[in-house]
Amino acid sequence: MKRFTASVALIAAVLASGSVCADDAKARKSRSPDEFTLAVFGDWPYGKVLFDSARLLIDSINSDPEVSLTLHIGDIHAGTQPCTGAGLNPVPPGAYPSYNQQVFDLFEQFRAPFVYTPGDNEWTDCQKKKELSSGAPLNELAAVRSLFFPHAGFTLGGHKKRVSTQATEFDRRYPGDARFVENVMWEQGRIVFVTLNMPGSNNDGLAWAAPYTDETARAAEAAQRTLADLRWLDAAFDRAEEEHAKAVVIGLQADMWDPAAVVAGGDGLSNYTIFVHELAQRSARFGRPVLLINGDSHVFGADRPLADPNSATGKIHGTQAVPNLTRITVQGSTTAPAEWVRLTVDPDSPSVFSWENVPYCKDPLTSCL
């Protein structure tokens, strides 16, 4: 929801040498037999223009024969758009009860298996005045789970894929983790993929606005979900270690190093620190490539946020050095040009990952229709 500073663009330029050129037909002809491709995007669709032009993104991804799975890393509407008003009687003025269903119908039009992990705009932030106080966060999260995860252990999309889900593969010592159907895991090409419900707004760390001012419920939600996320993250790394995976990919919404969040008046990042410490510890112990993909900040960037503990990002959470962790922030749909990330995975390559941005619209605010 916030924007990266210009320095991220410089970092992205430095890392661009590891990404794939847009015009790479020759390279694709010589693909390793073990290579595969994912389409990744998030913060979409935002507003009527983007919603009405959704076909541009769907067709762009569906027309790529190499895409074997599509990953959406959260936020299905803008932070100024209303939520559904799920479970409330009367429904708050300005709520949009049918919106999530319309987005679900778009997701089903992607041909490859479609994995979605929730963002903050569709549940955490529904209580905010700028979203017209249009929904109770816990009600909205329950509605997201019911609609977007109708069959635990299966993806959305034209071709369903079986995945592991915390709803059925939770640690039996913590039966409450069974509610987190949205946290999924799968393997492809000796790579372990995992998604986590880790939203923006400081991980649901901000007090809810009236009439939803139940601080006990908010604090309990944030604590219980974060602990479940930690256990699911550990399960992914345990699986990767046991099966000698070549790499781990983590998908979530929050930008846990957003510089705009730590300035005066920002949302803060403190409620991500416990998760980042576990991520750092497990990544360092794993020792092989780890790729974290997030949205939230809306401007594409690629960096290694924990490689240098004395860097601006390294100081935010105060972890050990983790040079094998790379992070990609996907381009938000309201930032020109409108793009999705074409992620190529080659388990036989030392770096494993390469990527390119694929534009599907020059200017999403004016010329997508």
Layout: helices, strands, pairs:
Blueprint: H1 6-15, H2 25-29, E1 36-41, H3 47-52, H4 54-62, E2 67-72, H5 99-107, E3 114-116, H6 137-148, E4 164-165, E5 184-188, E6 191-195, H7 200-204, H8 215-242, E7 247-251, H9 273-286, E8 290-294, E9 301-303, H10 312-317, E10 325-329, E11 338-345, E12 353-361
Parallel strand pairs: 1-2, 2-3, 6-7, 7-8, 8-10
Antiparallel strand pairs: 1-11, 4-5, 5-6, 9-10, 11-12
Helix pairs in contact: 8-9
Can you walk through the features of this model?
The protein has 369 residues and is an alpha/beta fold. It has a single domain (6-361), classed as Purple Acid Phosphatase, chain A, domain 2. The protein has ten helices and twelve strands. Strands 4-5-6-7-8-10-9 form a seven-stranded mixed sheet. The protein has a five-stranded mixed sheet with strand order 3-2-1-11-12. α5 links the parallel β2 and β3 (114-116). α8 packs parallel to α9 (273-286). Mean pLDDT is 90; it is low at 1-29.
Overall domain count: 1
Order of helices and strands: HHEHHEHEHEEEHHEHEEHEEE
Number of helices: 10
Oligomer: single chain
Spatial order of the strands forming the largest sheet = 4-5-6-7-8-10-9
Question: How far is the first residue's CA from the last residue's CA?
Answer: 23 Å
Largest sheet: 7 strands, mixed
Q: Give the proportion of residues in helices.
A: 25-40%
Query: What is the CATH level 1 assignment?
Result: Alpha Beta
Q: Please compute the radius of gyration using only Cα atoms.
A: 19 Å
In CATH, the topology is named: Purple Acid Phosphatase, chain A, domain 2
Task: List low-pLDDT spans.
Answer: 1-29
